[in-house]
Structures are given as structure tokens and as C-alpha cells.
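Repro:
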Amino acid sequence: MKPHAAQEASENVIDLFSGKPLDEVADNIIRIAPEFDGLEMLYTNDSSPDKLYSLKVVCWGMKESGEVVGMVPWLNQIVACTEINDPLNGRWEGYRDPGTNDIFYEPPLHKIVELETSAKYYTYENVDDDSIIQEIPDAIGTHAVLTENGFRSFVLIEVLSWRLLAGGKIQAMLVDENEVKSTPVLPGDECLYAAQEREDFRYFFQHRIANKIKEQDPEALAAISMLIESW
């Protein structure tokens, strides 16, 4: 086959989930589904290569290609479990069900079906990248760390929800207490703002670490010190 014919063939193949020509698929996240059963990501890093660590999955995301991946708050962004990276070379090792202790490497079938079905049902055309596609509650106790002075002082704020934009960006939504008009504050409330859009935002922590920091736990404070040095 001639090269230009191959290119034309690629342009004529339409991706099932995005509706775009295959060669235009950027593999952004197009749908998310919250994780309510406590499933976790397992990972290792170079500091303790023989030890497995776990982190709760906040949601499952479907890419434009149709691939489904677990998503976790990781350092200062939310990323696919299979794509984690950090200064200690963190590596994804699989998923775990803490209720049964089963370890698996593919997303649960029921989450794949949920995302495939919703992606086919909800279609968006002619929307800009900042249009809100979904907003789901945070169910794992994620906290955002904000500091204006290089960690000489900092605040921990609970993430209320995660907002998916049409361009594939996922934002952590925090409550501006000065703008609360009614309670409880729910996803989509006008008093919410995106952590990643704040200049003083630094990192995400799940509730276990966040609570240890609040309690002035020495190990947690040592971890904070390491992050300060790497910032």
C-alpha cells in the first residue's frame, strides 16, 4: 500500500467513543466513574523496592481510545495508576481489593461497562475545552496542601469533588468558606474553586496522611520535609 493511501485509510477510521478520526484521538479522559468499593492501587518505589504500598483509587477514567484506567491523586495532579511517576521512581504494580486481598491488573468489568455505556449515551459536540462534563464527589478523603511561604506554614483543605472538563483536565474542587450560601455544600456549588488554579497549591494527600500531619506525626512531618526539599 502506498504511504498516502495508508494515511487516507487512517483518516477514514473513526474512534468509537470520541467520534474523531483515529489519528486525531489525543487519548484524553472523556468519562469518569467514582470508586465506591474501596479498591486500591499498588505501587513500589526505589526507597523500598521489596515493599508494596497502596493508595485508594478515587475514580476510573475512560480515554478517547476506549482504554479504562484507575485514577489517583498523585503529588500535585490526578493521574492514571499505570502512569504514576515521582522522584523515587514510583511504579504501578496492579490493583487490589482490600476486602478479599485479590490483586488484579485490569479494571473491574462493571466499571468498564459503566463507562462504555455512559460514553455512548452522553455525547458532546462543539464544546470548548473548559466546559464541565462531569463532577463526582471525593470518597477517599483527599486533601489539598496550600502554602504561600515555602511551607513555613501551610493549610490542608478537604477536596469536595472532582470536575472533568471537556479538554480532559480533571480538577480538584475545594470549598471557599466565605462564599458558602447554604449547606451541605454539594458538587457543582458556586462556592467551589479548583485547587490546581491556585498559585499556592502544592500537593494532594489522602486522609490517612492528612490526619497524621494534623496530629504532628513525626513520620508524616518528615515526608513533608522531603517534599519541601524537592519543591
